[in-house]
Write a structure and sequence with these properties.
Blueprint lengths: L17 H10 L7 E2 H8 L5 H11 L10 E2 L16 H8 L4 E2 L2 E2 L2 H4 L3 H4 L2
Parallel strand pairs: 1-2
Antiparallel strand pairs: 3-4
The protein binds a DNA duplex through helix 2, helix 3 and strand 2.
Length: 121
DNA sequence: CGGCTGACGAAAA
DNA sequence: CTTTTCGCCAGCC
């Protein structure tokens, strides 16, 4: 069973959870702007960790302090609308902020895209 | 302890 | 051009 049991190999739990970094960036997203999971992931250093970003936010939306509706996938698709109170909440919120959404896809995506590495730099 | 899953994304075939 | 596969890393069964 316990062939190798590192009692304390990494007890140091980095308070800077992957999530917290994500939360910070998402909170910094200006109103009327949107970003992609990959952009945040890249900003965190994990260019291919886009899944983790979205997943981390999955826990964030329960906090209700994160404008998760401003985060969409790389195609501008509202991939997370199904996690909101209603499938239309995400879209309605975005439109409320001035973002045009049609067929669950952000219009004028290239112009609405907010890159943390550039805007935040 | 081991393996599956997951708001994605990009490269390979 | 489209479809498939791998990579990311952490939580959960």
């Amino acid at each position: 069973m316990s062939v190798k049991k590192p009692e304390k190999i990494q007890d140091q739990k980095p308070k800077n959870d992957f999530f917290e970094d994500v939360y910070q960036v998402v909170r910094l997203i200006p109103k009327g702007r949107v970003t992609s999971y990959g952009a945040i992931a890249a900003y965190l250093g994990s260019k291919r960790g886009a899944r983790m970003v979205g997943w981390a936010m999955g826990s964030s939306y329960t906090h209700h302090d994160i404008p998760a509706h401003r985060v969409v996938n790389r195609d501008g698709l509202l991939s997370a609308r199904h996690l909101f109170e209603t499938p239309t909440t995400m879209q309605e919120r975005l439109e409320h902020e001035g973002v045009v959404v049609k067929d669950d896809v952000v219009q004028d995506w290239a112009n609405r895209f907010w890159d943390p590495e550039k805007e935040l730099l």
